[in-house]
């Protein structure tokens, strides 16, 4: 997959590069397996957020293919992509993005607001209990610590039962101990088969991750052993190949 931006008549290559001879444009391949925790690292401007946006179906690649749970989502229209995103992907951010006037339960319920689901409140409460906030259900964000806010944000990301969580600097606003607790939370989530992809500058996260992918100037410079088998989200540089045959995540 390759991503270019056109700004002011110039082309910025955010993801991808050139072959060593310099005569061929290249892209990146990236995929994550069920239950895997992948950390994405790299200097400022190396393409980490762009990659997260591609994995989250928030932006279109310029060239390449994307698969979600084995399904080719490259050519879906906007509405179908939004539905695929809602069904399978949750987001966690450094700044939590909780609504200050809503309780923890209401914040977690928020993504379900248009679904009129009578069980949404109980599901939100269950999720908050799962992340250790059973005694904070009715607190508003300003009555919670940073770590507790991030737990609420994680519970909110889980409310639609996603198969992958995409996290942008999830420990960036937390002290070391609180960051470690949030990582333990992610580990428990991975144990349920949900994949986590976290963009991070935090060495604690890379130590904890199953795999670390380093981006430099839009290109993957090194990586640990590749995730094996079927992948939850998969972006590919090449064109024309059909979707993989069967994905464990489809079951
Ligand atoms: N909407 C956009 N329009 C034009 N260029 C963009 C856009 N978004 C990103 N870029 C460029 O693409 C490159 C990669 O940006 P990206 O935000 O993915 O980097 P990053 O690794 O997340 O950086 P940081 O760690 O600073 O957040 C940068 O050169 C950036 O200037």
UniProtKB/TrEMBL annotation:
Show the Gene3D superfamilies listed in the entry. P-loop containing nucleotide triphosphate hydrolases (3.40.50.300)
Q: Which SUPFAM superfamilies match?
A: P-loop containing nucleoside triphosphate hydrolases
Name the CDD domains for this protein. Answer: ABC_MJ0796_LolCDE_FtsE (cd03255)
**Domain named ABC transporter: which ranges?**
7-242
Please provide an example of a Pfam family that matches this protein in its UniProt record.
Answer: ABC_tran
Show the GO MF annotations: ATP binding; ATP hydrolysis activity; transmembrane transporter activity
For this UniProt record, the keywords arranged alphabetically read as follows: ATP-binding, Nucleotide-binding, Transport
Q: What is this protein called?
A: ABC transporter ATP-binding protein
Task: Name the segments for region: Disordered.
Answer: 227-251
Here the segments flagged for biased composition (Low complexity) are 227-240
* Domain of life of the source: Archaea
The question of whether Nucleotide-binding is a record keyword is answered with yes
One GO cellular component term noted in the UniProt record for this chain: membrane protein complex
């Amino acid at each position: 997959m390759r991503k270019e931006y056109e700004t002011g008549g110039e082309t910025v290559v955010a993801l991808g590069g050139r072959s060593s001879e310099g005569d061929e444009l290249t892209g990146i391949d990236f995929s994550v397996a069920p239950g895997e925790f992948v950390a994405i690292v790299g200097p400022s401007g190396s393409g980490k957020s762009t990659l997260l946006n591609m994995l989250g179906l928030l932006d279109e690649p310029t060239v390449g293919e994307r698969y979600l749970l084995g399904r080719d989502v490259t050519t879906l229209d906007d509405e179908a992509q939004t539905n695929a995103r809602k069904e399978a992907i949750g987001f966690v951010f450094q700044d939590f993005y909780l609504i200050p006037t809503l309780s923890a339960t209401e914040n977690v319920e928020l993504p379900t607001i248009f679904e009129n689901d009578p069980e949404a409140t109980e599901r939100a409460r269950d999720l908050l209990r799962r992340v250790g906030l059973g005694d904070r259900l009715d607190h508003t964000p300003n009555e919670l610590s940073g770590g507790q806010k991030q737990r609420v944000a994680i519970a909110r990301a889980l409310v639609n039962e996603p198969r992958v969580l995409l996290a942008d600097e999830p420990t960036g606003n937390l002290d070391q101990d609180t960051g470690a607790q949030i990582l333990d939370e992610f580990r428990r989530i991975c144990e349920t088969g949900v994949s986590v992809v976290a963009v991070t500058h935090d060495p604690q996260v890379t130590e904890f991750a199953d795999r670390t992918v380093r981006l430099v100037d839009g290109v993957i410079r090194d990586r640990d052993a590749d995730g094996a088998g079927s992948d939850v989200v998969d972006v590919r540089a090449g064109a024309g190949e059909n979707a993989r045959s069967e994905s464990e995540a489809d079951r």
